[in-house]
Amino acid sequence: AFVIASLAGLPALAQAQVAQIAADAGFEVRQVRVTGTKRMDEQLVYARVLAERNRAMPEVDAQALRKELRTLPWVEDARVSIQLPHTLAIDIVERTPHAVLEKPDRLV
After folding, report:
1. The pTM is what?
2. Rounded alpha-carbon distances, angstroms, from residue 15 to 10, 72, 87
């Protein structure tokens, strides 16, 4: 019975229905909170996460989003957590800089 149901697409249909019910109940991404950025532009993180906005919470793939955020140049690690009912919290761990750039008025 499980194989026949899987072939018919019932698990995917049930998952989509649960996501729609959760979204109707207010469990969808409405707010994104980013912490841990000191040197990097926070807008790069928001640009990657913008696709998750207004998505039902059961449909958010935190692991895939974490992998995508780790591809950014300054990001050493990222923690993505879902805070019900409507917040996606992202904590960025930045890489340690290993060079010094001398500008006319300061060192960076």
Report:
1. 0.72
2. 9, 31, 21
